[in-house]
Amino acid sequence: MPRVLVVDDEENLRLLLRTYLKRHGYVVEVADNGESALALVETFGPDFIVTDVRMPRMGGLDLLTTLKAKGIETTVIVMSAYGNVDLAIEAMKAGAYDYVQKPFKNEEVLLALRKAEERESLRRENRALRQEVLRDNVFEDMLSRGAAMREIFRTIDKVADYKTTALITGESGVGKELVARALHRRSNRREGPFVAVNCGAIPETLLESELFGHKQGAFTDATADRKGLFEQADRGTLFLDEIGELPLSLQVKLLRSLQDERIRRIGDNKDIQIDVRITAATHRDLGAEVKAGRFREDLYYRINVLHIHVPPLRERREDTTLLIDHFITRNNARLGTAIRGISPGARRLLVEYPWPGNVRELENTIERAMVLADGETLVEADLPERIHQARDPIRLQLASGELSVKKTTRVIEEMLIRRALGQTRGNRTKAAALLELSHRALLYKIKDYQIDL
Ligand SMILES: Nc1ncnc2c1ncn2[C@@H]1O[C@H](COP(=O)(O)OP(=O)(O)OP(=O)(O)O)[C@@H](O)[C@H]1O
Ligand SMILES: [Mg+2]
């Protein structure tokens, strides 16, 4: 049975509603102001709160904001006297679900409650559905519903246990590191270490000692023996990120280590046996690097035994919308924001944007939008300029390859007119001045382009 907490400073009204709602199948508690209501929320755990707005001690509005601040999501219905409609509206803005005006017939309260219940069950259903969708589309830390990624997940499961070297390619931010981690976690090495090193981020002189370690006195700064990352990754996985940046001198040494499964610390005179699974990633086209003489062909073949290419986000738009919802939910938990969702328009913008920075860019864009958003729903205005610009008809026109000057000029002209009218809030005289068009010409073009004002 649903639980209702009735909050009002008028005793008669409390008793009346209690009797009435009990008769209609609710479990009811009452409180005479916001403060005592808050205390009851903890112990009674109501599904719904029906509260007056104006009360001595804590009023309905304060009650609402306090509940929200505490992260309590109980549905609130406010009651307000005829003169206090403004307060009721304010309460709705602050997150109340509905309001009934005093004096009311009992049925009105019942109706509001039933409506809220219906919404509640819809929400629950939605949540369950979303969880189901998630369960079906999750692989380790990766989400995807597209065929290409599914194929990658299958490959990972198939090859995880082999010591085969894997080369993961794809644009920046597509999830290469997540693939490498999944490969490790699905393997029989999962209890062993996963050691990642970014070959592009460490200066050449340090990288060798970083990877292979050194003996004390091997060079000026080598004050003690040091284990390299290869040794640290023993019985686990060594992830060589941005392997395309590895200097040629180290490529030789790496190749030898891979072939012999032994490494030698700098300054040492004996080898150390290692058991490491190597995965490597690059955003470069390694084949082309080989042709250009920047990457050793023999190492390339040694690494590229198993190739996993992660496609860019714009080639798997079905994932974009899944990831949008995932990031919103995750950020709410992580940042303490209370964004309920995203408007269809904003979602469309995000799905159509080409995402040169792929999933990482999407992740950052959503986080920023959530932090800056005014409302409970992300709308187009919450998205950064570049996402809007990508929709720019001029760019789309130019990208289409169309060569007709006339057609392209029309696109530009229409956009400028829309922009001017937007800036002047539809004032045609002012817009005409900005556009340096005669008033008459502008009226004609508005009609021609079918611009609604
Ligand atoms: N399928 C996915 N599901 C959920 N999160 C993802 C997915 N793909 C990538 N991410 C997230 O996007 C971000 C970038 O992923 P990752 O670091 O694996 O990309 P990368 O290809 O290694 O990027 P770079 O080339 O810049 O190193 C990470 O925060 C990661 O958690
Ligand atoms: Mg990476």
What is the structure about, briefly put?
This protein is an alpha/beta fold and 453 residues long. The protein contains 20 helices and 18 strands. The model has no long low-confidence stretch (mean pLDDT 91).
What topology does this entry show?
Blueprint: E1 3-7, H1 11-23, E2 27-31, H2 34-44, E3 48-52, H3 60-69, E4 75-81, H4 85-93, E5 98-102, H5 106-136, E6 138-139, E7 142-143, H6 147-159, E8 166-169, H7 176-185, E9 194-198, H8 204-212, E10 213-214, E11 226-227, H9 229-232, E12 237-241, H10 248-260, E13 262-263, E14 272-273, E15 277-282, H11 286-291, H12 297-303, E16 306-309, H13 317-335, E17 341-342, H14 344-352, H15 358-372, E18 377-378, H16 385-390, H17 393-399, H18 405-423, H19 428-435, H20 439-448
Parallel strand pairs: 1-2, 1-3, 3-4, 4-5, 8-15, 8-16, 9-12, 12-15, 17-18
Antiparallel strand pairs: 6-7, 10-11, 13-14
Helix pairs in contact: 2-3, 13-14, 13-15, 17-18, 18-19, 19-20
The chain binds adenosine-5'-triphosphate and magnesium ion.
